[in-house]
Write a structure and sequence with these properties.
- Two copies of one chain form a homodimer.
- Helix content of chain A is about 45%, strand content about 15%.
- In chain A, α2 (about 25-40) crosses α3 (about 50-55), α2 (about 25-40) runs antiparallel to α5 (about 80-95) and α7 (about 150-160) packs across α8.
- Chain A has two domains: about 1-95, Arc Repressor Mutant, subunit A; about 100-210, 3-Layer(aba) Sandwich (Rossmann fold), CATH 3.40.50.
- Chain A has helices spanning about 10-20, 25-40, 50-55, 60-70, 80-95, 110-115, 150-160, 170-185, 210-225, and strands spanning about 45, 80, 100-105, 125-130, 140, 145, 145-150, 165, 185-190, 205.
- Chain A is built from nine helices and ten strands.
- In chain A, the strands form three sheets. The first copy, chain A, has a six-stranded parallel beta sheet, with helices on both faces. A two-stranded antiparallel ribbon of chain A has the order 1-2.
- By secondary structure, the first copy, chain A, is of the alpha/beta class.
- The interface between A and B is large, with 69 and 69 residues.
């Protein structure tokens, strides 16, 4: 919405967007936004690239380069205006409208995700819960009634959900993914430990907790063996 | 264990490890292992780089390059032996010994993680649950009694845990992280939406679900605005 407002999205930012912000930069923007919101909550009005980079856990040269893609360079001796920069990052990420999320798979993890309070203040609303298990369908989780998988298409249409969150076992994930895509979702965040096939217009992000642990194990192992 | 066995860790692999496997390659190894285990479960004995790459969701040139760091090149016209390659990846990641994990923060997410059945067959055992809330301490989750934060050091020492999993709110995460580091943990997987400071000998992996959604929002936004 504000994406079309010239005050919030200056010409330089639009030009950058057209050139295409690199995916690695996009992946770091949520971290900057998180740090900016924390600064704002502390009443901080302006911040330096060093402070912001430190809070976000990146180098300050990296931060300055990333923010230059948004047409944001800070001011020498003054730094970045926290509120203005927050708006710029939000506009770049498209967070000026709330995006609606449907969760499929209401087991332990789906339950936890449905109840996660951190979505709302970061631009997302959970609008639908779906499960294949008749014992789970009809129960109320986080204020929403869990509905059967064959209603997925109707739920996505009725709620205008654009993002699907897959919290099913690995064996069911591709089928659920296909159903989400067919229902019209264009972004999928999956927690199932398998890779998913989607058409080119759909984006997938994957979180595999055991894979993250295995990456940590590698470092521990290297240390232990003195490699 | 098998890490010191010459059969399972050939000279070439050890040489590669000494040269240092690039972090991006390390991050892809768990995906290859996941795909290899799925193939083995289907009774597949040998696989091509094309098939394995497809299953893992990467390009086959990328796969071959990554596996060459393990000293594994496949055989022309035969491909890779599924079982042997699985072992090589497991040795490289240090998964030949089970690693012990302590979870701090037994709210909705900590609860779901404690109950996650996917850890055990991927090399990890949850050996301790810790929470700061007196109402949660003493309850049993996934067969373990939740213990208070001030027992963390004793739990890590008694269980020889090397990895800590942080599922607390953001405000508590740095304090919990410091306590885990002090207790002797060398790897931390955090779900709290804030960056954490650790000493150089400790590795941190971060999963921030809302950040993942924000990255998906970016792509949806770009599509919607025709950028």
């Amino acid at each position: 919405m504000a994406g079309s407002s010239p005050e919030r999205e200056p010409v330089a930012a639009r030009a950058s967007a057209r050139r295409g912000i690199p995916p690695a930069t996009v992946a770091r923007l949520p971290g900057y936004l998180r740090a900016l919101h924390a600064l704002a909550a502390e009443g901080v009005v302006t911040t330096s690239s060093d402070e912001l980079a430190d809070r976000a856990g990146v180098g300050s040269a990296q931060l300055r380069k990333d923010l230059s893609w948004l047409g944001s360079y800070g001011r020498r001796g003054v730094g970045y205006d926290v509120e203005h920069l927050s708006s710029q990052v939000e506009v770049a990420l498209g967070l000026t409208t709330q995006r609606r999320v449907v969760i499929v798979g209401i087991g332990n993890l789906g339950h936890a995700l449905a109840n996660y309070s951190g979505f709302a203040d970061r631009g997302f609303g959970v609008v639908g819960l779906v499960d294949a298990d008749p014992a789970v369908v009809g129960t109320t989780v986080a204020g929403l009634v869990v509905r059967p998988l064959d209603e997925l298409r109707a739920i996505v249409a009725a709620t205008d959900a654009s993002i699907g969150l897959i919290a099913t076992p690995a064996a069911a994930a591709q089928e659920v993914c296909d159903a989400l895509v067919e229902a019209g979702v264009v972004g999928i965040l999956t927690f199932a430990p398998r890779s998913l096939r989607v058409p080119p217009h759909v984006d997938v992000r994957a979180v595999d907790v055991a894979s993250e642990l295995q990456i940590l194990a590698f470092h521990d192992h290297r240390r232990a063996t003195g490699a």
